[in-house]
């Protein structure tokens, strides 16, 4: 089922959104039969409760959606999405009770509740469809949902079908859809074009590494997104334990998020000059894999001592960031499933980000709150710079000691951006347990917040 709204018809069933506090007054205005049905079924307005009410002929008369209390709503998001999965087949229209300020978020959540990853197995579709609530820009919400679905599909696809060539094909399909230009630099051409660290990380794999470079828009400020596209990460010669390798199909989650955000930007026609750079590689093991203690020279000329081949994401991002910075855009944003330290710090639900720009922070935090897309600011803590300086080379890709892992990774990346405002997102890209509008599996993080923040940020 497509994650789109339906048109209002004579067959639309009214849906009343009722908080626990509002239920008594609402019931008082209903016929005795409706009041009795509500009581008999134990409907209290608790968050996520759903109740369908038929008329005397057994046809849908109305439906109720529990909206809980202010306290219960504060502990989650996409509350109507939980109702959507419980209602009988049909088309529903919000008739009352949904606060205007919640309409966009709840409508989006309903659409995303219809998502299922069905590439390899048929999935049960969502039976309940929604008419766009009054005042909601349906086309805009559908475009945002489509961007999120693109991100989810890319992450959920296993590496057998989502290697570097497949990720490039997905970017090319997106470029074709919106008339964007795209170039893909492959294999040894990366050396010719001076992307040595992208080539080094990906050279051990059967599927050649590549750099994807997509451009769209001819007016407005310049925004460059850089997404980590490690399509599978074995850890290289510092091989991961089996348990740690189990989710590594999602190590291209930064690239997936960047492409999903690009879809949102292009589909909603934001007035920006958008560029998306994705270093797409597999970190594999073979005789020509890069080794611990190797020293690599980056595109920027900085040398990097390899103290762990499993800290490869920052290496491929470094070359791409240096390339992005040469164009001096108005904003560079990198997105990556980069460190386990970020997950330990804030868990899977928050998107940690790094920025020293108070205007960026203000715009993003406001957008995150408005779009129910939570983020958490982390520090570019300058005193830790010495931790990424090994002495034998300019930089260390894996400082010893285990402290401040996500911060030292962000500081490493910042060394490759000197001409442009820069922000970095260390996302998880995975929903470990099903939640309303978010089934277990790949998920976008910070993309909706960034989409909402782009124009206020760039037009400062």
TrEMBL record:
InterPro entries tied to this protein: Leucine_aapep/pepB, Macro_dom-like, Peptidase_M17_C, Peptidase_M17_N_1
One Pfam family in the UniProt entry: Peptidase_M17_N_1
Annotated protein name in UniProt: Leucyl aminopeptidase
GO molecular function, one term: metalloaminopeptidase activity
Coiled coil: none
GO biological process, one term: proteolysis
SUPFAM superfamilies: Macro domain-like (SSF52949), Zn-dependent exopeptidases (SSF53187)
Assigned protein family: Belongs to the peptidase M17 family.
Residue intervals of the Cytosol aminopeptidase domain: 308-315
Record's keyword terms, sorted: Aminopeptidase, Hydrolase, Manganese, Protease
Gene3D superfamilies xref list: Leucine Aminopeptidase, subunit E, domain 1, Zn peptidases
KW Protease (keyword) present: yes
Biological source species: Sulfitobacter alexandrii
GO annotations of cellular component type: cytoplasm
PANTHER family, sorted: LEUCINE AMINOPEPTIDASE-RELATED, PEPTIDASE B
């Amino acid at each position: 089922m497509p994650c789109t709204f339906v048109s209002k018809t004579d067959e639309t069933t009214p849906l009343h959104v009722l908080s626990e506090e509002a239920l008594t007054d609402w019931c008082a205005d209903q016929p005795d039969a409706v009041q009795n049905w509500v009581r008999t079924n134990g409907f209290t307005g608790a968050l996520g409760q759903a109740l369908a009410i038929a008329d005397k002929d057994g046809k849908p008369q109305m439906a109720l959606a529990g909206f809980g209390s202010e306290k219960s709503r504060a502990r989650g998001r996409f509350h109507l999405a939980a109702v959507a999965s419980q209602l009988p087949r049909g088309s529903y229209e919000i008739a009352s009770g949904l606060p205007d300020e919640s309409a966009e978020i709840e409508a989006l959540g309903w659409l995303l509740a219809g998502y299922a990853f069905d590439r390899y197995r048929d999935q049960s579709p969502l039976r309940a469809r929604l008419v766009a609530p009054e005042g909601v820009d349906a086309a805009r919400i559908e475009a945002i949902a489509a961007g999120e679905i693109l991100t989810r599909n890319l992450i959920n696809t296993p590496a057998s079908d989502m290697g570097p060539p497949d990720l490039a094909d997905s970017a090319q399909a997106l470029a074709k859809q919106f008339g964007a230009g795209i170039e893909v630099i492959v294999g040894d051409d990366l050396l010719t074009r001076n992307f040595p660290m992208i080539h080094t990380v990906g050279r051990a794999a059967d599927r050649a590494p590549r750099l994807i470079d997509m451009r769209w828009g001819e007016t407005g400020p310049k925004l460059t997104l850089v997404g980590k596209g490690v399509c599978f990460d074995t850890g290289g010669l510092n091989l991961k334990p089996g348990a740690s390798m189990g989710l590594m199909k999602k190590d291209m989650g930064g690239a997936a998020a960047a492409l999903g955000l690009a879809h949102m930007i292009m589909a909603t026609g934001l007035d920006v000059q958008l560029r998306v750079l994705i270093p797409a590689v597999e970190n594999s093991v073979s005789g020509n894999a890069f080794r611990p203690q190797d020293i690599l020279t980056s595109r920027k000329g900085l040398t990097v001592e390899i103290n762990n081949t499993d800290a490869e994401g920052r290496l491929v991002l470094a070359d791409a960031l240096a390339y992005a910075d040469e164009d001096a855009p108005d904003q560079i944003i990198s997105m990556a499933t980069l460190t386990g330290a970020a997950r330990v710090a804030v868990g899977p639900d928050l998107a940690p980000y790094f920025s020293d720009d108070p205007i960026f922070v203000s715009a993003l935090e406001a957008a995150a709150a408005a779009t129910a897309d939570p983020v958490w600011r982390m520090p570019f803590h300058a005193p830790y710079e010495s931790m990424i300086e090994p002495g034998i080379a300019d930089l260390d890709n894996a400082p010893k000691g285990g402290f401040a892992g996500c911060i030292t990774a962000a500081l490493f990346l910042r060394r490759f951006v000197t001409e442009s405002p820069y922000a970095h997102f260390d996302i998880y890209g995975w929903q470990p347990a099903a939640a309303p509008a978010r089934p277990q599996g790949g998920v976008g993080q910070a993309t909706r917040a960034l989409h909402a923040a782009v124009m206020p940020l760039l037009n400062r």
